[in-house]
Design goal:
The complex is a heterotetramer, with 2 copies of chain A (230 residues) and 2 copies of chain C (220 residues). By secondary structure, chain A is an alpha/beta fold. Chain A is built from 7 helices and 14 strands. By secondary structure, chain C is of the alpha/beta class. Helix content of chain C is 15%, strand content 28%. Classes of the chains: A alpha/beta (230), C alpha/beta (220).
Amino acid sequence: MTTTIAATTDEAVAGIEDGSTVLVGGFGLAGMPFDLIDALIRQGAGDLTIVSNNAGNGDVGLAALLKAGRVRKVICSFPRQSDSYVFDALYRAGRVELEVVPQGTLAERMRAAGAGIGAFYSPVGAGTPLAEGKETREIDGRVHVLEFPVKGDVALISAHRADTMGNLVYRKTARNFGPVMATAATTVIAQVTDIVPAGGIDPEAVVTPGIFVDRLVRAEARRLTVEGAR
Amino acid sequence: MTTTIAATTDEAVAGIEDGSTVLVGGFGLAGMPFDLIDALIRQGAGDLTIVSNNAGNGDVGLAALLKAGRVRKVICSFPRQSDSYVFDALYRAGRVELEVVPQGTLAERMRAAGAGIGAFYSPVGAGTPLAEGKETREIDGRVHVLEFPVKGDVALISAHRADTMGNLVYRKTARNFGPVMATAATTVIAQVTDIVPAGGIDPEAVVTPGIFVDRLVRAEARRLTVEGAR
Amino acid sequence: MTSPVLERADRAPLTTDELAARIARDIPAGSYVNLGIGQPTRIAEHLPPDAGVVLHTENGMLGMGPAATGDEIDLDLTNAGKVPVTELPGAAYFHHADSFAMMRGGHLDVCVLGAFQVSRHGDLANWHTGEPDAIPAVGGAMDLAVGARQVLVMMKLFTRDGAPKLVPACTYPLTGPRCVHRVYTDHGVFAVGPDGVRVLETYGISVAALRERLDVELTG
Amino acid sequence: MTSPVLERADRAPLTTDELAARIARDIPAGSYVNLGIGQPTRIAEHLPPDAGVVLHTENGMLGMGPAATGDEIDLDLTNAGKVPVTELPGAAYFHHADSFAMMRGGHLDVCVLGAFQVSRHGDLANWHTGEPDAIPAVGGAMDLAVGARQVLVMMKLFTRDGAPKLVPACTYPLTGPRCVHRVYTDHGVFAVGPDGVRVLETYGISVAALRERLDVELTG
């Protein structure tokens, strides 16, 4: 249904329920929907399963959500970073569950959820500990692992610009997981730096068509330090 | 490896072997690589398996290739059209094999070939004659059909503009199967109306990155009649 | 609780345009909709411009406008029936794998399809007459049948020979099992599904007469 | 027919820069290449500008340029190690699912990865030391291991304790079985695979001495 434009980030995240699975865009800090995460912290939903590439940097974004004690489980490819100390401490204290998924498999499992694919066979991870307990099948002489979709109740993503139809374009490698997460959740909430009238984005250059976007909210671009980006 | 720019369509299609599986872009006439098909007819390869959405219109493009007797089998979603008389006659005479695949499954099977997916489960076609003989599996209470990749030896596609790196953009709904076929064949040959220097296409708007394109050739845009488009 | 049947035996059956207008009324404002090839495309003419309905065409576009005429005709811009169409502000283009991922993934609110037969449980047959010499051609029919959240059928209720097309079980090859939610016909509107057929409206025929002519149990 | 071993026992082992330059020499002109996080990124500095090698970064870009400095730094443009980088003319951006589809689909000509261990048959271990209290983190390692047509490893041949990292069988958890084609180290270059290990070059050590220090059979 039609994309709605929220006046504030608080309005944008209204109604997210305890126990939700939340897909959170970004690769490190690039494409991370900071303002939506801050609003989610204020909104108060807890017992969340977070699906994201990383498990937070420094004290901002996902790290702040983790620190606030709202996260039951993290599904990601790469939790361990130089500044992932919030996650690291919670994990070592047994206060957060972790499911590690190869990065491309994580993306593809979300794509499957968005694309109505019931399951798929991937060669990635076959013969490694991350495939333990998973079904396998040999196809063309190569062992493949059966992978199932990862679907979100909610996706929080950050894009560059939207039009009023909800069409999105991104900026450089901040695109990363946004477009695939936008297809894979029941309610998709996007923060953007700019909302232009319908027709203001070249139809040939739209990356995420508005059909995938439920709520839009404007948020100022942040100046992040280089240190913060590592 | 680097995309090469062929001086002529004949040079572009050189080396296509008898018995090849050739993916041919286009939906009806939109996006059909007419000049490459004409060159393929001159080139002479036969006993071909053609994968395309349709099975030719009028006497041009795929229809001309069929008429020249070069096609052993057609894999498509919709052979029967008001002007598919060349295919219709060959089929009724038992001179061409036909495999009908639902349109989205055809696209997804090529995507799987390009994306290194060994097989996937789709709900499309379950419980219909097109799933007969295929493996099925119930996932979340819904019957799914196991589908395998469709890979081409060659893809012939038509795009709007290329840069010298082989990056491609398309025009409107002529985009259709081009981008997915470009990922799914060993040798990808694209005809375009224009080739610009590297940097001449906005990196945010590239639809097919040059990594997928082996050979480029310039071809004039054709003026087709409306009748021909049906 | 079911709403009472709107029985209009006193008037003529719906014309194709009336039927298209009737279906248009049931399409919620702001929906993303795919209108199948043939008669369903005429529904677009009856959608109020301010309803904000966005049309999808499976050959790679959202925001499709009306058929193109004169100088608007651009053969790179057609609908799934290969008819030249136009582009509305806020349109988006995408490739075939993305377009069908969108459909199969359940992102469309509504699709409206023609049909040869619909069974009382919502099985759909609309791609093949089953004649042995017919050249099979499925196109996007099976993808559309499983894809949209609401699958509506637009068809005549009877064949030219008077045989019902709403049937106990399809005799033609299936497009998809149990996928249709509602059937809109010249003689009436029906909800179909696990509980069988419920009559919602009739046109030019009474419910009693429909019970005589259809071989399926009608509730409602 | 195998080419003779280039035995350079008379010189020092390769420095990291020399090793990066050595690998750069084996990357064919016009290749599409992914350079893994850490030391492999330094190979880029040794690729001749006119070789037309196109760098892929799995976070969604082809045509990646050198690290960004000063005003070039744009935090929306980083490599897989989250280091700000630049964009070359002819670059293209794409999302994560497309980026890994590209890798898994075998479209990259070469990737170069670091490693904890490589087995004589080309098994790769580079994501987990197996220590029980380590927080597991795989990133794109497994995708890269199966994706590229040629998987090259860049590593030191021995740990700080002198234990070989080219081993009969990996003791660390695997990233991928039988995926590595060549191993480039400070002490030598090796082809690995179904037929075991073939020495191609040595640096700062003789083949005979290597045979002493490695627990794998060396041919060539």
